[in-house]
Amino acid sequence: MKYHARVEVSLKPGHSDPEGETTMKALSELNYPVSAVTVSKVYTLRLEASSLESARQKVDEICKRLLANPVKDNYRFEIEEAK
Q1: Which domain holds residue 34?
Q2: Helices and strands (DSSP H and E) totals, the chain
Q3: What is the pTM of this model?
């Protein structure tokens, strides 16, 4: 079966987010009342697996091995069957 996965990778609390800080400063200079900005990466995957559980296991492994650095990143994902 084919599945679509949406993976979001973000920094763990306490890690520097220079892109978020730059964006917050720019928004402030444009007079938007923003007090915090964090930047995340979103990956969209299409994969084949024998079941939804198998797809979950594969995506979790992909995150751990490549998409997220366990020292500084958190990740979460959603999977749905492709239509």
Answers
A1: 2-81
A2: 2, 3
A3: 0.88
Beta strand spans in 1-83 (E): 2-11, 40-48, 73-81
CA angle 15, 29, 20 (to 5 degrees): 20
- As for how many domains the chain has, the answer is 1
Residue type, 40: S
Query: Tens digits of per-residue pLDDT, 12-70?
Result: 999 999 999 999 999 999 999 999 999 999 999 999 999 999 999 999 999 999 999 99
Q: Give the sign of the dihedral formed by CA 52, CA 54, CA 60, CA 66.
A: negative
Phi, psi for residue 56 in degrees, rounded to 5: -60, -45
Query: Residue 72's domain is classified under what CATH number?
Result: 3.30.1280.10
